Amino acid sequence: MAIDLDRPYPLTSRQIADYRRDGFIKLKQVFNADELAHYGAEITRLTIALNTQTLPLEQRSTYDRAFLQVMNLWEESGTAREFVFGRRLAGIAAALMEVDGVRLYHDQSLYKEPGGGITPAHADQYYWPVASDRTITAWVPLQAVPQDMGPLAFFSGSQHVEFGRDLEISDASERAITANMHARGFRVLDEPFDLGEVSFHSGWTFHRAGPNRSTRPRAVMTVIYMDRDMRLKAPDNHMQRADWERWCPGAAIDAVIDTPKNPVLFESRLFEPSA
Q1: What SUPFAM superfamilies does the annotation carry (predicted)?
Q2: With the C-alpha atoms ordered 151, 193, 89, 31, is the resulting torsion angle positive or negative?
Q3: Residue 82: is it exposed, middle or buried by C-beta count within 10 angstroms (0-12/13-18/19+)?
Q4: Within its chain, how far is the Cα of 228 from the centroid?
């Protein structure tokens, strides 16, 4: 089976402007069924093999009920590396952030089990020791995500809101951020994902997901990108210090995050679309 994950996905100027305004975008038909089946099988295998969760759902914390989480699958499998290093996704990320190139921060699979709970409202960049807002997450469902499976939901335009940026994902963040978003009138986009549909959201965009009320796992692969020229900042909290040690080992404060774990995955001046 011939699969080309470097094939470009052209964006319109309107889509880029929508992302700049809203802090997220959902794009149809980024992947086809064959691509998702091929890479999804390996991502699922790795998630099952590598996750360390052993407690039943009812005994877990809110965070642990939200999903099974396995990170940096690209280091575990050549097939997973092909997916994470694909220039189609990376090219979209660079275009949406309006930067010349992107580096990998890390990848992670997120499997919300049948009966899995909510993903509380939060902003990802609380966890990241990075010096600018030029970060973006590609959220790639490996199957369609109907409403009862808990699709990712976004507070539109919330990437500019300071309140809640100091909250880690928890019951408290769900209460405080959701209340603030509603009080300020931010529109919530909470809709199903079609097969092949992918969302991208900024590191400071507040988002959440409902529980998985279906009988199937909600299987998702994510890739987190940052501006190619991103610099490390001094950590603001213990989570950022842990991320520095785990995902950017050897990077120096105020220097570009150029480590073996953070390769450049796309540069617009070097990209030559496949024939």
Answers
A1: Clavaminate synthase-like
A2: positive
A3: middle
A4: 17
DSSP H helices in the chain: 13-22, 33-50, 62-66, 78-84, 87-97, 171-183, 238-247
How far apart CA 227 and CA 230 sit, in angstroms, is 5
Closest to 223 measured CA to CA, from 39, 13, 11, 22: 39
Closest CA to 120 of 175, 164, 70: 175
Q: Give pLDDT tens digits for 172-212.
A: 999 999 999 999 999 999 999 999 999 999 999 999 999 99
Residue 95 CB-half CA count within 13 A: 20
3-state secondary structure of 242: helix
Three-class secondary structure assignment of 200-212: EEECCCCEEECCC
Cα 158 to chain center, whole Å? Answer: 16
Q: Closest Cα to residue 142, out of 35, 84, 216, 220?
A: 220
Q: CA geometry: angle at 150 spanning 5 and 215, to 5°?
A: 95
Burial of 247 (0-12, 13-18, 19+ CB in 10 A): buried
pTM value surpassing 0.90: yes
The answer to whether 92 touches 26, Cβ cutoff 8 Å, is no
Which residue ranges form the domains of the chain, and what is each CATH number?
Answer: 13-229 (2.60.120.620)
Q: 15, 25 in Cβ contact below 8 A?
A: yes
Extract the tokens encoding 196. Answer: 């092949």
Average pLDDT, the chain: 95
